[in-house]
Amino acid sequence: MEGARGQERALWLVHNDASGSNDREALERMSSGCADCGLRAAYRSSFPSDDLPTPAMLDAGGIDLVAIFAGDGTVNAALNALSGWGGQVLVLPGGTMNLLYHRLFGDMELEGVLSLAGKGDLQVRRPGIIRSALGDAYAGLLAGPGTSWNDVREAMRNADVLAMATESKEAFARTLQDEPLRCVEPPLGRSEGYPLLLLEPHDATVALYAYHAETTAEFVDQLLALAKHDFRQGPHDHIGEADDLVLASVGAEKFGVLLDGEPAEAAGPTQFRLATCEVDLLAKPSDD
Question: Which residues form a coiled coil (predicted)?
Answer without folding.
Answer: none
